[in-house]
Amino acid sequence: MTAGAADRARYDRATAHLDAPVAIVDLEAFDANADDLLRRAGGKPIRIASKSVRCRALLERALARDGFAGLMSFTLAESLWLARSGFEDVLLAYPSADRARYAELTADPALAAAVTVMIDDPAQLDLIDAARDGGREVVRVCLELDTSLKLFGGRVRVGARRSPLHSPAQVADLARAVARRPGFEVVGIMAYEGHVAGVGDAVAGRPLRSRAVRLMQAAARRELAERRAAVVRAVRAVVPGLEFVNGGGTGSVQHTAAEEAVTEIAAGSGLYVPRLFDNYTSFRGRPAALFAQPVVRRPGVGVVTVLGGGYPASGAAGRDRLPVPYLPEGLRYDPQEGAGEVQTPLLGTPADDLLIGDKVWFRHAKAGELCERFDTLHLVEGDAVTATVPTYRGEGHAFL
Fold first, then answer.
1. Residues with Cβ < 8 Å from 348, sequence gap 6 or more?
2. Which residues are within 8 A (CB) of 66 and not within 5 positions of it... i.e. 6 or more apart?
3. Which end of the chain is more exposed for a tag (fewer CB within 10 A), N or C?
4. Pairwise CA distance, residues 356 & 80, whole Å
5. What is the pLDDT of residues 332-356, one digit of tens each?
């Protein structure tokens, strides 16, 4: 029996009493992935990206391990909810225009102490001040550095279009603007190198592209390490008490951790290991978060139809944004239909061994987005479900 077949047998036994669609997290794999992230971080603390987990119970499980410290949230509303839930260190990874939540933040000492907001433009400070509604609490601020690699005098850009702050002088100027402004305090710098951390460098069947990605990433790491160190020096000249410098992501943990200027690493997807993280030479994780759809039809030889399953991931549209049929091994989509909203035909020899009501296990393309489709995650240990916990959705929250 292959390792995949053994896992399928475990998951089927564990969820035999549950009707599909159903979502699980294999705790042995989750914990092994957490250990691997810590090993790659080399002693630097890991701040967990909450959008990649979207389940309070599993955030708490990871944070209970030595080496994980703090959360990186994705909306201000989520940040305040997490802080009120007892999480004491929440870094909002994206600028917000949520005036109502800023009014809450600036009026509550406990929230203001627990939540750090992201800015890259003085206009964001204006918005916060206009939203205060009498709130006088000092707002903790993190400055975001643009990590993109610019080539040929800036005519070619590699990386996400995030912050407008690219040079040390630009970041230091904003730090000075914040320092001069009552009601705000710069406490950190964040620089997320998505073109390194979030792009696989070993794509199956595409050796030339993979080689090009590796060359690009090596150049990007060298350039960013030098520039990030210069940015930190420039900002510390303005803010000597800077608390943290955050960098990285699941795909670049060990590289970013090697930079002396970086004090903490951001990661989250590496706990679940969705399909987009299969294509890396630097690490191998274990798929921990899965969902199952039930077989509802057998249209013919070599084909079954499962209920639903069309759960595409965000990002540029493409086949890599679709969930992948995982277990039993050897199933594939019908190219004329793909992953459907209400039904999904699957082709392949294993289809002939599947019966009506059997489960087909899938992996989502991304990590936390799976939780937008399910109210609960069933936690599997061995061949048993040992707990069932709510996702954000199950707790009544859809923050985006």
1. 302, 330, 331, 332
2. none
3. N
4. 45
5. 999 999 999 999 999 999 999 999 9
